Amino acid sequence: MNRKIAPAVLRGSALAFAATLALTACGGGGNDAGGGSADGANADDVAAALEEGGELTVWAWDLTVQDVAAEFEELHPNVDVEVVNAGTGNDQYTALQNAIAAGSGVPDVAQIEYFALPQFALADSLTDIGALGASDLEGTFSPGPWNAVQQGEGIYGLPMDAGPMVMYYNTEVFEKFGVEIPATWDEYVAAAKTIHEADPDVYITNDTGDAGLTTSLIWQAGGKPYTVDGTDVSIDFTDEGSTQFAETWQQLIEDDLVAPINSWTDEWYQGLGDGTIATLNTGAWMPGNFESGVQAGAGKWRVAPLPQWEEGGTATAENGGSSLAVPSATENAALAYAFLDYASVGDGVQTRIDGGAFPATTADLESEEFLNREFEYFGGQKANELFAESAANVVEGWSYLPFQVYANSIFNDTAGQAYVSDTPLMDGLKSWQDASIKYGTDQGFTVSE
Amino acid sequence: MTTASPPPAVLGTQPKPAKRAPKRTQKRSWSGWLFIGPFMAVFALVFLAPIAYSIYLSFFRNQLVGGNGFVGLANYSQALQDTQFWSSLLRVTLFLAVQVPIMLLIALLVALALDSGRLYGKSFFRISIFLPYAVPAVVASLMWGFMYGTRFGLVGNINSALGTDLPNPLSPDLILAAIGNIVTWEFIGYNMLIFYSALRVIPKSLYEAAEIDGASQFRLVTAIKLPAIRGALVVATIFSVIGSFQLFNEPAILQGLAPNSISTYFTPNLYAYSLSFSGQQYNYSATVAIIMGVITMVIAYAVQLRGMRKEG
Q1: Complete domains list, chain B, with CATH
Q2: Which N-terminal residues, if any, form the signal peptide (chain A) (predicted)?
Q3: CA-to-CA distance for B156 and A101, rounded, in angstroms?
Q4: Mean of the per-residue pLDDT values for chain B?
Q5: Which residues of A touch B167 (CB under 8 A)?
Q6: Which pTM does this prediction carry?
Q7: For a tag site, which of A96, A132, B2, B140 has the least CB within 10 Å?
Q8: Could you read off the pLDDT of A93-128 as tens digits, one per residue?
Q9: Percent of chain A at pLDDT above 90?
Q10: Radius of gyration of chain B (CA)
């Protein structure tokens, strides 16, 4: 669920003032980097394109992109940027896919979430922006998002935000029931039992089967259910990480310890405010939603590191987050890249941070102003420190399926059944695996278990 | 129509009827087409072209890897073996078998009650029953979805107020009944109106004659009213059959509230939608839509045949 809404409402940690950007757009200079090229265009062409100017159409649902575009136009008077909201998440992907299939009306820049990026990259719908300058950006972004925009040898987008996971918790609930803040998932399950036994109306968290959360927690546990090598795909939810997740989560489901409340519903916002839902394990983009949607919880909520699978561990995962990509149908890839660069690496980053986005750029994540910001909502806690720490500890090597958009859409048909029937979660994941394999095979992939 | 004037002159000078005949038919068909041309153009564009295009689509398969290719009837054979498709068809059939009779019966009773002339505040009653039909299906589904909520909804309120333990209408076991309830609520008024208008045109003299013969009210209904509105009953049934097979709005809206109860293949239409919009399987989706269209037509036609035969 959060894949649809999360990036749309990235109004989290608004920064008070500008952090110095150590990063500069790698505009000029030679380019010896590998990777493919966009019609032979390189970094020099980007600078030239900016001089020359032109028109750009940007499809993005993130509201801060609008401000970034306005600034960009001011900076480059020859460039005319039109930002279009073509829908959030899936709606936009459908529109984009249709435009690409029709060969007309394709935007020059599109916001695409990390999990959906491989699907577009694989279909050759996106420009490999490596030669345009992106290949020089190694180290600019935190590893999770940077890894996510690369597909094989190519770079298909620039990370515009990130969702390193943390645990948000309601201190009042924990104090009331005298429960310690869980540091491991075993403690989490124990806390869930204690809380729910003490008051049957209170739950440790809400979950009705969420593909994004499931894959993220498996990711954190070190599981790699998806391996992708070009068109060779394997899907296996029996590896250690997946099993560990399933066994732990099974206890929560079986004993009805998770509230049967769908995320992003009125009921959910109420539950977060009135103490029905005690914790929330999600991305660093959440604070904005708390501030705007859960006023009743102001001052009660805090941020803690995500509970660990192993005691003393620090592993985390990403949940949500978007990139900006250049569809290959664009006629002005160089200019489009210039916009990407401005929005994701250049001054646009600060604009977006001010607008509430959680950045993916390491320089911002490490800046003092950013880290020292005190969140009034979280009782003055310096939440960005925890977010940044999480961003640095994302387990490497995760990959999504090249057809993750569809796979996520059938999660509730399969794995979700564990939440409403006697089907064990492990079996549910197995049927999710089978259904995904079937779809992959139908789509011409070589899929194995 | 300047072309219309020469023929008489031509006819007069041409003695051979053999030559005359083809010329005349040619003229005649040309002017005929002029009249129906605009209609045919629109008809072909908005009715035939989409169907033809769907059929065309259903012979291809476009894959993420490998691109587009002609596959003949492969999509059809796949659909016929597709357990998800058949389970969705079975679900709407069950829905049809249970919900439609209930809805039509209630609508009929209401129409008869209104027609009996014994109700006080008839027009108020009539408009209130018809009102739900004026509520868009999406709004109705959302509204009922909230009422079904076991925590903050009506069900939840009843449970906490009366201490009852009503089951969750959005659970997998009850979801079909819950949807049936919404659809019934929405369409009773519509069907009632069909029945009521049919009842209104029955000549009063028949009732008078029956009264003279000493017929009871019940006999009046079974011997005069029901036979007289059989046509309307058949029409309402056919509409309901089609409506049931096309069930989409209600499950699609409730899916957001009960994702584990309503699968992406809950009804054939929802299945076609999911295939197309989340799966990019436009070709297979078109195939499912065509098969479903054919099945609906066959069943609706069977209902019509049966209804009409009885009438004769």
Answers
A1: 2-57 (no CATH), 78-311 (1.10.3720.10)
A2: 1-18
A3: 47
A4: 87
A5: none
A6: 0.81
A7: B2
A8: 888 988 887 888 999 999 999 999 988 888 888 999
A9: 59
A10: 27
